[in-house]
Design a protein that fits this description.
single chain, alpha+beta, Jelly Rolls, 7-stranded antiparallel beta sheet, 3-stranded antiparallel beta sheet, 5 helices, globular, binds 2-oxoglutaric acid
Length: 252
């Protein structure tokens, strides 16, 4: 099943909100322009080279507000994404981190089935998977199990560096799978309980995505108390009980 991408809007329509509640994910087309995505790609490529241990501009990397490219920080809570976050999360929202998943001819693996919640637990969070390239079945677009956000799947640990906690295929037998082909600039909002994976990149084309993670700032999150998972949450709107930095600290 290939899922149709909803029409562009800086707010979710009632139908999109229904889809979010029902499926645990919703795709919004054209949230960002293609030109903007190409600019982000340039900034992130440079940041990966300067900031990374290996100086290589591909693979998986996670940044929080303290090591994020400063010129992109404001975009994490601008007028396109914030109204939708408010609809989904509520009036109090904080930004936690961004993950680059940059696949090209050298990094072509399919991401295995998992729920992001496995990696942080605590109160539920949500992420935005932003397509910086067109993502198709051939170059590794996302797949979701609609409705899977209503349960926690048994998890299995693997001795790998990335995606070390996964859902085994046998747990998903018989469940419907939605494949989300998206265009550069589209964004997929998804719950941290929505089971997802991606196709392999079989055509060696760039398939760059940027995944930004947010939580309800009105809910005390023990993940934050551990002190090392999300070092510096940043306030998007409203107030934070988790000590997020305020609006005045944004921007470069
Ligand atoms: O972009 C992808 O291939 C999937 C990434 C993903 O599932 C994740 O980082 O949680």
């Amino acid at each position: 099943m290939t899922t149709a991408v909803a029409q562009p809007s800086s707010r979710l329509t009632p139908d999109q909100l229904t889809a979010w509640e029902r499926d645990g994910f919703v795709a919004v087309s054209g949230l960002y322009t293609a030109a903007e995505m190409l600019r982000w790609k340039d900034v992130l490529r440079q940041h990966m080279v300067q900031d990374g241990p290996d100086g290589v501009p591909h693979g998986v990397r996670v940044w929080n507000s303290s090591n994020f490219p400063p010129t992109m920080l404001d975009a994490m809570r601008d007028d396109r994404v914030t109204p939708i976050l408010r609809q989904i999360i509520g009036p109090d929202v904080e930004f936690l981190s961004a993950k680059a998943v940059f696949k090209d001819g050298k990094i072509d693996f399919p991401s295995p089935w998992h729920q992001d919640w496995f990696y942080w637990e605590g109160p539920s969070k949500m992420s935005v998977w932003i397509a910086m390239d067109d993502a198709t079945v051939a170059n590794g677009c996302l797949m979701f199990i609609p409705g899977s956000h209503k349960r926690v799947f048994p998890r299995k640990h693997f001795p790998t560096e990335g995606f070390s906690v996964r859902i085994e295929d046998k747990e998903l037998e018989g469940l419907p799978v939605a494949t989300l082909e998206v265009k550069r600039g589209d964004a997929v909002f998804f719950s941290d309980l929505a089971a997802h994976s991606s196709h392999p990149n079989t055509i060696k084309a760039d398939r760059w995505s940027f995944i930004t993670t947010y939580r309800n700032a009105a809910v005390l999150d023990p993940c934050n108390l551990s002190g090392n998972l999300w070092k510096e949450p940043l306030q998007v709107c409203g107030r934070s009980v988790n000590g997020a930095k305020g609006r005045e600290t944004f921007g470069a």
